[in-house]
Amino acid sequence: MNRNELSPDASPRAAFGARLRSLRDAHSWTLDDLSARIEYSASHISGVENAKREPTIKFAERADRAFGLTGTRETLASDVFRIRGGSLLEGFSEYVTCEARAAEVRLFETGVIPGLLQTEEYANALAQSAVQRGIITPEQARERVAVVADRQNVLRRTPPPLVMAVLDESCVRRPIGTDAQWDAQLARLLEFAEQPGTVLQLAPFTMGVRRTFDLPLYVLTMPDRSIVAYAESATRGHLQRDGRVVAAILGTYYQLQAEALPQAASAATINALRKGTP
């Protein structure tokens, strides 16, 4: 069968497509063979290989599993994040690759709703604000929103991970988007809290110095029970794998949970905000 000649140097997307075909050829798989393994149509795979379709994180992760790349440093998912790298913090792509496989996710966020819990409208409002400030381009804004959507696939995984979220009160006191969009975002938090295997807590301003973290933090428990932590500054992210360091971070996270509002009180606070009650 005649095949289009690929030009991997034409663009990052073309390079991804060429690597995908190379991996497929190495396994002596046809498009239909790979289609059966990753549950994407042969025409979709062909479109990715020929750089006519943009690869998504979900697509790349399924291909990684099929090719035996999951857990290595040369995943196709990492390639997708490098393609989108201009809109992401350094170190973030490695974290998200781990997040997609995590058995448990513990997070603390301040100032903004965490990406795993954002509505599309909220994510888009944040991205467009960054465009208006000249921080990113419109294309990078679209990439940021796409990354949020891709990350949330982990919540629909079978089985889904256990997710525990502690949000600083500033997250729910800072309206983003229109009134309707902000109300939908608060409703999304309440929906999350009602799902099995989730915990949502607010860290109120009254905690003062008892709030144990000042920057966003994520702690992942992987399927093999190893633990990694991810923290961000204004310019980059860092994935910490040292067991002793992560154990200390996890202990501090438990202290934060103990001091934060219980889920019922947190939900009541969010409901009051939706009703316009201080």
Written account of the structure:
It holds the Pfam family DUF5753. InterPro entries: Cro/C1-type_HTH, DUF5753, Lambda_DNA-bd_dom_sf. One of its GO terms (molecular function) is DNA binding. Residues 20-76 form the HTH cro/C1-type domain. This is Transcriptional regulator. The structure is a single chain. The protein has 278 residues and is α/β, with parallel strands linked by helices. It has two domains: 12-83, lambda repressor-like DNA-binding domains (434 Repressor (Amino-terminal Domain), Orthogonal Bundle); 102-274, 2-Layer Sandwich (Endonuclease, Chain A). The protein has twelve helices and six strands. The protein has helices at residues 12-26, 31-38, 42-49, 57-67, 76-83, 92-99, 120-132, 138-151, 170-173, 179-194, 243-259, 263-274, and strands spanning 104-109, 162-168, 198-203, 217-221, 227-232, 237-240. Strands 3-2-1-4-5-6 form a six-stranded mixed sheet, with helices on both faces. Helix 1 (12-26) packs antiparallel against helix 5, helix 7 runs antiparallel to helix 8 (138-151) and helix 10 (179-194) runs antiparallel to helix 12 (263-274). The radius of gyration is 20 Å and the shape is globular.
Features:
2 domains; Endonuclease, Chain A; 434 Repressor (Amino-terminal Domain); 278 residues; alpha/beta; six-stranded mixed β-sheet
